[in-house]
Amino acid sequence: MTRSMLFSALMLFLILLAQGPTLTQARKPHIINFRSPNLYPEGITWDPLAQHFILGSVRDRTIVSVSDAGVVETLIFDPDLPENVTILGLTYDTVNNRLLAAINAIEPLPNFGALAAYDLRTRRRVFLSHLPTDGDDLKRPGPNAVAVDFKGNAYVTNSIGNYIWKVNNQGEASIFSKSPLFTAYPVDQESPFSFCGLNGIVYSSKGYLLVVQTNTGKMFKVNEDNGNARLVLLNEDMPIADGMAIRKDGVVLVNSPKKVWMLKSQDSWGEGVVYDKIDLDEARFPTSLTMGNDGRVYVVYGHLLEAFMGNSGRDNFGIEEVISEKENREDSVWIFVLLGLGLAYFMFWRFQMRQLITNVDKKTN
User: Fold this and answer.
1) What is the tens place of the pLDDT at every residue in 290-316?
2) Which UniProt keywords apply (predicted)?
3) CATH T-level fold of 31-322
4) Predicted structure pTM score
5) 3 state SS for the chain
6) Where in the chain is the domain with CATH 2.120.10.30?
């Protein structure tokens, strides 16, 4: 290989290297700041048809939509719900184009626990399903998060009673899973969230549910057919685990008020590993995660501690994309690997072309 060829290859590599930071520069998270007086949202989901977020209020019977630009619109106001009811978990039912909302009345309000389904085309309620109690319940139930499968069946976590309800797409409700595993692990009674058990829940396309437990930091895998549960073996617990989201590539994200854990599994969640952690703004009290547009994951900052302390008057809240710097670095490495392979191929091509020209010249002469 001649000196001129080496010089050309070196120049090409330097040009590609100079472009590297431009190609791999970390993308800034998408941040949406919006105003809605006294909303205090806990649950969040994404409507892929209307292309907006949907949030509920822990203060009243209102559900709002929030656009990418932060434009807020009242989507649903249901006067048939008790006044001052809390709307917690939300999820979008792709089968029926419905919004599913877990509804709870916090003490000292009269007991009320239900799952509501709303047709997003007409914005009318399809059903309001009251969730049954178990005879062994010592405290009144606490409906919290909700997930939905590909048949339109909804699964709602009971954070107080540590079991899961199932509500089919006709609104018929039953207790689905009350595994003894859900109460098998020690709870720190001094923790401010010791009362909160099963919380965030997601449905996997492989046919099972994953659910996290706030007061133990554990994750469970639940069979969608019979409700049997097993502990997912993780490399660490996730204290005060709250919301969950699952990406199309199978990566699961779990948030607490302090951080987001990113987890993956090689055996369909017999075991799993936390491979990244992302700090959140604890002062703004994040609660839930959702999958947004283009597979991006977002967390809602609802300032719920203010609401639970009886404060009012706040009108500014936020939705923020969760981005893994570790994944960005790994993507950068792969880009440089591809650049190196491209350079090697170019060098090989140049060498082959030079040999071909030399052979042709010899034959011609």
Assistant:
1) 999 999 999 999 999 898 888 878 999
2) Membrane, Signal, Transmembrane, Transmembrane helix
3) Neuraminidase (2.120.10)
4) 0.84
5) CCHHHHHHHHHHHHHHHHHHHHHHCCCCCCEEEEECCCCCCCCEEEECCCCEEEEECCCCCEEEEECCCCCEEEEEECCCCCCCCEEEEEEEECCCCEEEEEEECCCCCCCCEEEEEEECCCCEEEEEEECCCCCCCCCCCCEEEEEECCCCCEEEEECCCCEEEEECCCCCEEEEECCHHHHCCCCCCCCCCCCCCEEEEEEECCCEEEEEECCCCCEEEEECCCCCEEECECCCCCCCCCCEEECCCCCEEEECCCEEEEEECCCCCCECEEEEEEECCHHHCEEEEEECHHHCEEEEECCHHHHHCCCCCCCEEEEEECCCHHHHHHHHHHHHHHHHHHHHHHHHHHHHHHHHHHHHHHHHC
6) 31-322
